[in-house]
Amino acid sequence: MIDPTASGAAPDPATAPRSARGTAPAPPVAHVRVAVIGAGFAGVGLGIRLQRQGESSYLVFERGSGVGGTWRDNSYPGVACDVPSHLYCYSFRPNPDWSGVFAPGAEIRRYIETAAREEGVLPHLLTDTEVFGLDWDENAALWRLDTTRGAFTADAVVLAAGRLTEPRIPDVPGIEGFDGPMFHSARWDHTAELAGKRIAVVGSGASAIQIVPQLAAVASELVVMQRSAPYIIPRDTRVYSAAERSLFARDPEELERVRSRLFWKAEEAFAQRAGDADATAAARSRALAHLEAQVSDPGLRAKLTPDYEIGCKRVLISSDYYPAVAEPHVTVEPSALAGIRGNTLVARNGGEHEVDALVFATGFHSAEQPYARLTRGRDGQLLADHWAGGMTAFASTVMAGFPNLFVVNGPNGGLGHNSAVYMIEAQIDYILGALRYSAANDGLVLSVTAEAEQEYTRTVDELSASTVWLTGGCNSWYVDARNGRLTLLWPDFAHSFRARNADFSPAVFDPPRPVASPPA
Amino acid sequence: MTTDARTESDGDPRVVVVPGLSGDAADFSFLGPMLGRRRTVTTASFDDLPTTPTVAELTTRIGAAANATTTPPALIGYSVGAVAAAVFAAEHPERVSALVLIAGWLSPSPKLIALASLWQRLAHSDPDALAEVQRSALYSAEGWDSAALPRIDERSAALVRLAATPSRASAPVDLATLATRITAPTLVIGCAHDEIATARETRLLFAAIPDARYTEVESGHGVLRERPAEVLGLVDGFLAEPRRHPAGAILGRSRP
Ligand SMILES: Cc1cc2nc3c(=O)[nH]c(=O)nc-3n(C[C@H](O)[C@H](O)[C@H](O)COP(=O)(O)OP(=O)(O)OC[C@H]3O[C@@H](n4cnc5c(N)ncnc54)[C@H](O)[C@@H]3O)c2cc1C
Hints:
The structure holds two protein chains of two kinds. In chain A, 31% of the residues lie in helices and 16% in strands. Chain A is α/β, with parallel strands linked by helices. Chain A has two domains: 30-166 and 385-505, FAD/NAD(P)-binding domain (3-Layer(bba) Sandwich), CATH 3.50.50; 175-230 and 269-360, FAD/NAD(P)-binding domain, CATH 3.50.50. In chain A, strands 1, 2, 3, 4, 5, 6, 17 and 18 form an eight-stranded mixed β-sheet that branches. In chain A, strand 5 (142-147) and strand 6 form a beta hairpin. In chain A, helix 2 (41-52) crosses helix 13, helix 6 (242-250) packs across helix 7 (252-268) and helix 13 (420-440) packs parallel to helix 16 (494-501). The longest helix of chain A has 21 residues, at 420-440. In chain B, 39% of the residues lie in helices and 12% in strands. Chain B has a single domain (14-111, 151-240), classed as Rossmann fold (3-Layer(aba) Sandwich), CATH 3.40.50.1820. In chain B, helix 2 (55-67) crosses helix 3 (80-91) and helix 4 (110-125) packs antiparallel against helix 5 (127-138). In chain B, helix 1 links the parallel strand 1 (14-18) and strand 2 (40-43). Chain B is of the alpha/beta class. The chains are: A alpha/beta, B alpha/beta. Bound molecules: flavin-adenine dinucleotide. Flavin-adenine dinucleotide (FAD) binds next to helix 2 of chain A.
């Protein structure tokens, strides 16, 4: 990284957060080596790793009021992970205390909060701070950040801004006339009185199937507006016994073994995504047997039977969703929400349901990320324009024309079958490797070649072609609707992502440019 | 299973897999198609073996599968198939580009010999009980949810008998001597809870091969059902760059 003094302003990075927080006259622009945008699993994880390396010149910008990202925003009743908790956490911070196989969301949030606090990341965290402009300054060889707490500069920027952060609410006519509680699953209104009410849940994806059993327990009537039926497999609802948790605490190797077993078991499921006929058939039978075992009414069963191949959309894990929708006061409307008249929901198939409260479990804007519209690289190029044909990046992490910029959990950085945290950690390894290399080379500006990015994208497209996400006959949010490219998922095993992308290699980066002389 | 012959590595895109005690290609029902996404995979066929096959019979089958490729393939053997693959690689170093030996052994363990004699006793009188006993031996307690009853038939009986024959007794195969002639870069995968090959015998096989590296998986002998994805990860990594780890290296367990 370049010498901080070369940027013209270099207050002690440790004091930068405080000066930025104060109301005193604008301080000189604070400069850090690394600016991290977002404090979810990715941003906090990177902060921890920087901290452990003794790096103190970094800041984490978070528009929310605390850390946790997904697990701060999603507080709906029933929220929990669907990758086992001993796997869905940092490998470098195992947690012997997970309450059960799948921990509730609040527990995951506390885990991230504790990690950030105990590892010393909090002094580097600026909460309630939104980044709304991010511009590469070629002459100064640094990034300029505009935030709700003023301007900052950084040698390198890491976009750890998530992918499931912008609630998607269907734009249906009449929505503004609805009289009653109405909110998105990721913006749950905990003050809304729902007991005894007629409630509709729009959507039948990962969030909906966690919410529905909870609401079914309190609603007088519940309608589920289902555009497309999901595949659901049984959930292991086991909680860990005191003896198990004690063993995890006393024997760290046991934790490691469990994590490893969970990881490699989860990896097996990729065969179903890769179009392997036997594996796919076995998975399909398992899911349909679960439906059959839990729903006896043939009419309801038909409504709940998916019309696409398993794996094309996220395979959901639940043992209480089917029993909930089979209850007499619950109705599954197998159709999309088309409009709202007063408090009556009108389905595309003509079905009408009058309700008192409306919950949108309709997912997120994922194919086009808002941060792409605020990021400008070389020659003022907008990242959103670079991504007009769908998100791309070399190693899923660096983009040509955007020097010293890294994105985590971005293009082809997600998984449909294993833990997102594993992917995030591989990307963090790559980023730290890049930062080390730059530091060891006089702050060399790292600019990946366009050819490398294109070649990587070609490989990804080739790997994607035979996967169920492109062949399974569904409309999935993993695919960019603008061009039909699979841009959100890594189309292979998680272990192959790490093997391919965790190690930084300078070979695909532009050679050093003549360095501009620092201002006097 | 056949896909485009492109490979992302310098290694050979062609792979020959050699089944274990069942003699059944189903041993590779996960590994085969997944390796086949980027490589061409051929299975050495153990169909129609004679009642008392020799190792030479198995290496002939491997040779036939290897011949189907224009360039020397990577050879992946499992269990008794690993023993046969090692013999093949020793006798025909020029026909193997890389070698992966999964849950193989240098000499049959006493427990394997005992299981083979139980097989002789029960195969006809009580094949169901035999299948149960074999399953218990094949799978580890931790991997029990993956355990499947092994097939009891003439072919598996013949392979078990062969497997339990100490190599010296079935001349000309003395694996300890032969193994030193293997020139292909080799990955030996042992199973920590292997009650059939035993991890120690697998490590001895590793020790006998000059250009070999070793790693161990938390599994019983039935590793291709207990931990198929982990084996895939190891094989993939090895085939991409066979000599990434030096000869003699013992690789740490995976830490995902
Ligand atoms: C309900 C739900 C359940 C899930 N369950 C699982 C699961 O079981 N297993 C799994 O692997 N994955 C799961 N996921 C996916 C999950 O999103 C990832 O696992 C992971 O939490 C992503 O972490 P992240 O740090 O990349 O992003 P996030 O957690 O989304 O964090 C991004 C942060 O960036 C902040 N931010 C964004 N833009 C700006 C800006 N301009 N300025 C400042 N701050 C900004 C956001 O406020 C947010 O805090 C789930 C997702 C949801 C929504």
